[in-house]
Amino acid sequence: MMKPNREIISRRARPAKEPLSHEIIVKTAYELLKEEGTSGMSMRKVAKALDTGPSSLYVYVKNLQELSSYVLDHGLGQLILPELTDGDWKEQLFRALDAYVMLLMEQPGLAELSLQAIPIGTHAFRLNEYLLAVLQKGGITSTSAAWGMDLLLLYVSSVAFEQAARSKHGEEHMAAIQHSYQATDPVRFPLIHSMKEELFSGDTVSKERFYWGIEVILNGIVHANGLNRNSISSRK
């Protein structure tokens, strides 16, 4: 009985695998982040997506934490900041942070990652430089500007993460939580009961509550700018 002819395919005829590099590792990790969240961005999963072993990745990144920092910076490459002008510095700050929160909410996994990693790279530096320049325009310099910028970015990340979580779980989940607060025992929890409407107030469409939070933090930064570090340390 004659055996059927089998076509022999040379390995050289197969499409060449893209050479491993820092850039392709970061891009692959970013795609996994969008698909699966931070849990999908493990070194093992990134290596599998690239058809290589995890040990190969360590030639280009030290560990998962460093990779996360580069992935976050890669995501920030899509951030469009308003032009720095001689206009109202507060307005420019609000617009920049608004653009940042929208990016974090629109790109799956990015808000979560922003709470876990400090971005490393040109895009993150561009955002930091912009915020420091705007704060400097408002007369906020040195330590107050540096620490204040961290507070603002952390606040924006937490808001974006909360909104992303709400979208993921749906309106019914949030409605159930609100109902629980509204049904609290007025005797045991009188303040929660009396402010049950206020606790969930704030128009998310107009971002009233979001802007209020920025204003509160900013007022604190402006106040702290008038204090010296010795007076702050003396309170410990």
Task: Explain this structure.
Helices cover 61% and strands 0% of the residues. The chain is mainly α. Helix 5 runs antiparallel to helix 7 and helix 5 runs parallel beside helix 8. The radius of gyration is 24 Å and the shape is globular. It starts with 21 loop residues before the first helix and ends with a helix. 23% of the residues are buried. The model is unreliable at 9-14 (pLDDT under 50).
Largest sheet: none
Structural class: mainly alpha
Can you tell me the residue ranges where pLDDT is under 50 for at least 5 consecutive residues? 9-14
State the share of residues found in helices, binned by percent. 55-70%
Query: Total number of β-strand segments?
Result: 0
Give the overall shape, derived from the CA principal axes.
globular
**Multimerization state:** single chain
* Estimated radius of gyration: 24 Å
Strand content: under 5%
